[in-house]
Each structure stands twice: as C-alpha cells, then as structure tokens.
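Narrative of accomplishments. A recurring question from our advisory board has been how the design workflow behaves on a single, concrete structure rather than in aggregate. To address it, we present the structure tokens for one chain from the evaluation set, followed by the sequence designed for it. No filtering or post-editing was applied between the two.
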C-alpha cells in the first residue's frame, strides 16, 4: 500500500453522459475539491475540508486554482507519423503516398522506432494525454517499440501492428499469412501485460486483400477480448475506391462485416460518409466511431455528424489522428470538434467536449470502468489544468460566471502550456 496523497484544487468529474442529461446533472464540480490517491488509484473525491478531516495523515499537494480532472484519452492516433505531422497540401490518398508511407518505411529499424515512441509519449504526456490508441506500422519492431516505451512509463495504451498486403509500396506490405502470424505473436506477447492492450489493426479495406481481411477476422474471432481498429469512410474518393475494389459489397462497412471485422470492440476512425444501413448496423452491434476533427479539416475530409450520430445512440470517441491530425493536444481537438459542430449548426457544450475527450473516449475503447473519470476505484491517470495559461485565456477566464465559462477559453485557445501537471497511476509525469 503506497502512502495516500491528497491532491487539492478545483475538481471536475462526470456522473452521467452530458449528451443525455444537462451539464449540471452530468458533472460534479467542486471549487475547493480534493482527490485522494493511493496504490495508483483514486480512493476518494470530495470537498477539500471533508477529505482533509477524514485523512489527516495523508501527504498534501495543493494545486491552488488548478483544475484536477481525468487525463485525456486519444482514441485514434498513428505514433509513427509524429515526424510528418503538418505536411502540406495533400488529400488522403496522396497524403499517404507522399508523406506517410515513406516515413512508415523507416520503422523496420528498432532504434528508429524506439526513438519515435519516446518522442511521441513525451509529446502526448506534455499535452495531458494519459492514454492513447495507436496504429503502428507493418513492422513488428514498431509495435514492440510502442509497447516497450508505454510499459516503461506505466501507461495504459492500446496498439497494434498495421496490416497491409496491397496498394502500398514495396517494403510496406506484409501478406495475409505474415500479417496474421505477426499480429498473433505480438498479441500473445503484449495483450493484458500490465496496462497494455492489443488491437487487431488492418489499416483499411483498400490496403488489404480479401484473404488478409479474412485472416484478421479469424484472429479477432480467436481473441474476442481484443479491440479491432481501422478506418471507415473518411473521404468521398476513398469510398468510391472501396466500391471499385469490392464490387459485391453493399457499402464500405460491408467490406469489414463480410470478413468478421464488425463487432463490439471495433473502432472505426472517421466515419464521415455513412449510409443509413451502415449507421443502423454500427448501432446494432454497438461498435465505436472515432471522431478525428483536426484531421478531417486538415486533410479536407468533411464534417462528422456528431449530433445526428449521438441522437441515434452511437458509441463515439474523440481523437487526434496524428499525424493526419494537426495537433497532439486534445484541447485543440475539442476546439476543432466544436468548430465542426458549428459548421453543421450543432455546437457542443463544453461539458460534452470535455466528456468526449475523457469518459467518452474511454467508453469507446471499453475502458470506462478503468480510466477517463475521477471516481473511487478508477486508475489515477489525472491532469491539472491551468485555466489562465496565457494572457488571452486569463483575461477571458477572469470574466467567467461558472466553471464551463472558465473552462471553455482553455478548450478553444489552450495547448500544452495549460497542462500544469500529469499523474500516471498517481505518479507525477509532468509538473
Ligand atoms: Zn488514422
């Protein structure tokens, strides 16, 4: 039993989904709050006075006006694309060919992959992202590097070897058999080891043959407790390409469904151009959609229908999609989600944005019983936000009438400077 520590500050947690109930019913806010942490877990949350009285021997760390919340959960990213983030002027297919594939080619070198994983987690942690779900490259070395670095830092992460056996350059293709064998070996080595989880990872239908999709489906059937991550309906050109490659498929989702790649635990990145049938099937099986707003604007993909999909009861997470996304910050990602909502005439409340970046993404990856909220028994991955991290933010927050007005300028204008402290399983990783 590690000695208990009492963290003091403003506290914000969720007790319900703010897409279902009003913000004041969904969230619990305490101006003078406290979180009791020991053994890597949140033991209690309440008012500072009450918890200090109940735990007089606990070590006290006072964050003053800092806002203590759960850490951010990034439900879709590509750590190997860290080095090519913010590459100019291409849409999806050209962007993959021009920037992504040449960079991913380098990850067969274990030393290069290890350096990239280190840099990636430095960046995500400094931005307050405590859990990430990442694609690796086709090289097993890239997945080994990702998990080894996450393990060394005690992070709860999900990752998987990306599988591609067609429509990718030489040196960046596996085969149906080697994709299956390598994925299986990595899964057996890393899945459930400490805080690590494996996701079966076909990149997307255009880069896998039918044989590879079948092999991935078979592996998922053998390991149904694993997640499965891929991409779905990101751009209209891509949707047409898929229709040409799979002439017998009813739609894009059918190219996954037919081969056993649709189910609960399936994470479908982007999901912008969905048909009625696809929406109905995704809802029916309770699969997860992952919204990547900075990527969708940066690569010019389109406007995700958050309001419509939430109203249908879809399970939805939020993600950076780095390096197609243009920021490692989940604050910037929330801002982009807000802007896309505005362009669709359906702006989101700050409570909804913050829930998506924490509890919503944890729910999308089926770990909301472990991470994404401050509550007794949850893993103590938490952050402390400075709600006045720049002069522009500070002057706006000073006029705020409530916590949502105080938080919203940081959501819209904040970055890593707003992340004052980060705790991983209770242990300091920043600040
Ligand atoms: Zn992606």
């Amino acid at each position: 039993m590690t000695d208990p520590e009492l963290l003091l500050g403003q506290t914000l947690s969720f007790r319900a989904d703010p897409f279902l109930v009003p913000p004041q019913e969904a969230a619990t806010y305490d101006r003078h709050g406290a979180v009791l942490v020991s053994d890597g877990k949140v033991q209690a949350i309440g008012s500072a006075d009450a918890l200090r009285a109940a735990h007089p021997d606990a070590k006290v760390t006072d964050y003053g006006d800092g806002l203590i919340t759960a850490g951010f959960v990034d439900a879709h990213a590509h750590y190997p694309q860290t080095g090519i983030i913010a590459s100019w002027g291409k849409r999806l297919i050209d962007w993959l060919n021009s920037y992504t594939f040449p960079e991913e080619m380098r990850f067969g070198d274990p030393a290069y992959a290890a350096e990239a994983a280190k840099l990636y987690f430095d960046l995500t942690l400094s931005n307050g992202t405590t859990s990430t779900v990442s694609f690796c490259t086709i090289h097993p070395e890239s997945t080994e590097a990702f998990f080894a670095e996450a393990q060394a830092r005690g992070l709860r992460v999900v990752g998987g070897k990306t599988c591609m056996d067609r429509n990718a350059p030489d040196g960046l293709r596996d085969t149906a058999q080697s994709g299956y064998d390598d994925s299986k070996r990595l899964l057996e080595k890393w899945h459930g080891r400490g805080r690590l989880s494996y996701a079966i990872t076909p990149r997307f239908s255009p880069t896998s043959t039918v044989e590879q999709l079948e092999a991935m489906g078979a592996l998922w059937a053998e390991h149904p407790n694993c997640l499965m991550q891929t991409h779905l309906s990101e751009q209209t050109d891509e949707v047409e390409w898929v229709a040409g490659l799979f002439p017998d498929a009813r739609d894009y989702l059918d190219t996954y469904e037919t081969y056993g790649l649709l189910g609960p635990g399936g994470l479908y990145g982007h999901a912008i151009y969905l048909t009625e049938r696809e929406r109905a099937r995704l809802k029916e099986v309770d699969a997860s959609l992952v919204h990547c707003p900075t990527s969708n604007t940066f690569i010019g993909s389109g406007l995700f229908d958050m309001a419509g999909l939430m109203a249908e009861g879809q399970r939805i997470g939020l993600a950076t999609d780095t390096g197609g996304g243009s920021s490692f910050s989940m604050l910037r990602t929330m801002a982009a989600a807000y802007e896309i909502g505005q362009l669709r005439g359906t702006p989101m409340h700050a409570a909804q944005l913050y829930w998506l970046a924490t509890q919503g993404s944890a729910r999308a990856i089926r770990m909301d019983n472990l991470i994404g909220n401050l509550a007794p028994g949850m893993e103590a991955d938490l952050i402390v936000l400075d709600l006045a991290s720049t002069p522009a933010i500070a002057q706006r927050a000073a006029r705020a009438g409530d916590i949502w007005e105080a938080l919203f300028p940081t959501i819209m204008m904040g970055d890593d400077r707003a992340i004052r402290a980060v705790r991983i399983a209770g242990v300091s990783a920043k600040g």
